[in-house]
Amino acid sequence: MRRVIGSGLRWLGMAAWLGLAGAFGAAGVALAQDNRASGGVVGETHSSLGAPIPWGIGLQPAGGPVKEAIHDFNTLVLWIIVVITAFVLVLLAYAVWRYREGVNPTPSRTSHNTVLEVAWTVVPVLILLIIAIPSFRLIYYQDRARDADMTINVQGRQWYWHYAYPDHGTLAFDSRPIPDDELKPGQIRSLSVDEPLVIPVGATVRVLTTGQDVIHSFFVPALGVQKYTIPGRTLETWFRADREGTFYGQCNQICGTNHWFMPIEVRAVSPERFQAWIEEAKQRYAQGPAAAPALAAAPADPGLQLAGSRR
Ligand SMILES: [Cu+2]
User: Fold this and answer.
1) How far is the CA of 235 from the centre of ligand 1 (A)?
2) pTM score of the predicted model
3) How far is the CA of 101 from the centre of ligand 1 (A)?
4) Pairing relation of β-strands 205-211 and 150-157?
């Protein structure tokens, strides 16, 4: 009788674990769908596409081709993980059930099986190959823009961002977050900035990053861009926004006390609006000969000069 109760309890325990796993899985899928749905709606308003949302799970909606490629790769790996996890779960459940003490009192003492051992070595190698090939392809895709329409220099500084548009003369400016008590409706705390990075929709933007003091990292999830900004070095990457919208990001390299003070706001606008902004920005940021140009004003930074000279 005790044995029956014991085995019953064990089964109950296992059923509970399976139930819990199923519930978590279902919740995860539901939240992922919820996330996608709200991303779509937000995207239509053009106000906060490419921003984190409450209870968001999964990747932010793609704002351009680099992020789409990341989504594809993420989906591939996710499904491989799902299949492996399900396979192991089924195998485990079967072994527990089939070889339980009640039906299998004398266990087999087999310790080697050549076919099995070769299989469980070769199959994981094949799985890694299936992951590695698109992974490398993605890394090289993100690496640099083959035919860039424009270049933006991004410099991480303690603690704000400095952006320069070398294709438009000396146009350069700093970008800082908006204080909590000055936020206007539609602006996001700790993400909205006073001077966003503005880009034209559909343009392939080459991004050259450097750091002025310590290592920062330029990270805009919805555009699929993440690059260190390292003092004395110029790194290259690129992005393109395929639709108008605002894409938020943050410095995601712990860079000091005010690390949180480095949000990124990228605004993708129509080419006409971009031209208008360029003209207006040139006026607004026009500085006296003493203060400008920004590139010449930073002789201690060979990285940025190199970036400027690459035009
Ligand atoms: Cu930083």
Assistant:
1) 16
2) 0.73
3) 59
4) parallel
CA distance 244 to 50: 11
Q: Distance from the CA of 203 to the center of ligand 1, in angstroms? A: 26
Where residue 287 falls among pLDDT bands split at 50, 70, 90? low
| CA-based R_g, the chain, Å | 26
Residue-wise pLDDT for 193-248, tens only, equals 999 999 999 999 999 999 999 999 999 999 999 999 999 999 999 999 999 999 99
Q: How far is the CA of 156 from the centre of ligand 1 (A)?
A: 6
Question: Taking the domain 2-143, which CATH number applies?
Answer: 1.10.287.90
- Of the listed ranges 76-80, 177-181, 300-304, the one predicted with least confidence: 300-304
The domain limits of the chain are 2-143, 150-291
Distance from the CA of 148 to the center of ligand 1, in angstroms?
A: 26
Are 166 and 154 in contact by the 8 Å Cβ rule? The answer is no
Domain 150-291 has CATH 3.10.20.90: no
- Residues 138, 40: Cα–Cα separation, whole Å: 25
